[in-house]
Design brief:
The protein is mainly beta and 402 residues long. Helix content is 5%, strand content 43%. The protein has three helices and 31 strands. It has helices at 247-256, 283-286, 321-326, and strands spanning 37-43, 50-56, 63-64, 71-74, 77-80, 87-92, 97-103, 109-116, 132-136, 139-144, 149-154, 159-165, 174-178, 183-185, 188-197, 207-213, 218-224, 232-235, 241-244, 264-269, 274-275, 281-282, 292-297, 302-308, 330-336, 341-344, 357-359, 364-369, 375-380, 387-392, 394-400. The strands form seven sheets. The protein has a five-stranded mixed beta sheet, with no helix packed on it. The longest helix is centred in the middle third of the chain and has 10 residues, at 247-256. The two termini are 26 Å apart. Residues 1-23 have low confidence and may be disordered.
Length: 402
Amino acid sequence: MKNVRSLLPWRLAAAALALSLSGGCDSSDEDNTGPLYAVTTQDLNAEVAESYVVVTSQAEQAAQLSLDNAIKVSGRALGVGIRKSGSLYVVSDDSPTVTRYTLNDEGRLEQSGTVSFASLGVTSLGEYQANFQFVSDTKAYFFDGITAQAVIWNPSAMTVTGSIPLDALTIPDTEMAFSGAVVALDGQLIVPVGWRPVEGVGITQKAGVVSVDTATDTATLATDERCGYTHDAVLGPDGMVYVATEAYGAAVRRTHGDAAPEPCLLRFDPRTHTFDTSFHRPLSTLVGGGIAGSLVPGPSGTAYLRVLDEGVAPVLEGTHPRTLASGAGWQWWALNLATLTATHDTRFPATSGSSFLFQAENQTLYTEFGAGSASTTLHVLGDNGRSTLTMPGLSFSFLQLR
């Protein structure tokens, strides 16, 4: 799921949550040596949005996540950081402050420092987990669409060390959002960008990519007018980065017809930092004319497209494209990036069109958001889409702590 701010009108089903402000460890965790994960879930049913951070060992097995002893955070929170580092950095759209938590010997999180980005004009932290990119334990970036910059900060010292202005990406009367799918390649971060109008429902016909050299902290910007809401990126076997319209953009096309840009696939060269002007594929032509969006990395030079199945998710008059994109009813199609041919992968059940990928100890997991956005279930990317952990609320971030 992308485009967090556009989800604000949604409300979750009510839940009676007995929560503590400290600890953050699922009571089922008794193994002090095995893998532990921090899961952050957002509850929008409260009058003021609230989030909960839980430590659990049960990411790869079927289980219901307990929110007992969770760390409670105001607003829509994310938990980010370096995998298996033992540290979690918690942020919220309510604040410009990053709060660090460290895993103790009992498998619980303890607060261990804060840093504010307010000096750079930042007022809100969030959107997607991938907006925070960690180069090392002493260097990280936060890509902020609101202020059009990449904040540079030190996660060890908890200090701000600089910023990269990205003002050239701003468009009047539009909201800019950096992607939840970033490609790290040869000392650079390749970050897709999407735009949508401030007023009304729609997407802007413009694709963008920011390439950041992590050694010099310099950015190269590239745009293309042939596509819209290109929030997904996958590295192909040819060394090129394939950039595609996300499911929300596809849903806008389905509900608004030709008034919305046609979902498409573009090719970006990470060496020249330019779009390939000779390459453009409407996503519908890859899937037999269907409504397609969201490009998800797969194994061995492949990717997955999500294709709307209206037999599962009928589109009615007045259906909101965000509801359509985030609801169940999107089939999985395997896309061969070498031949650019796609086939329906019937091993996977139809799930949410917009998905996040999370890395566990042995499996890559993807998210499925339940009806009414009351729950999130994790599935294995493989193994016939086997379901694992289910939790209340919307989970947009996940990190293996050890």
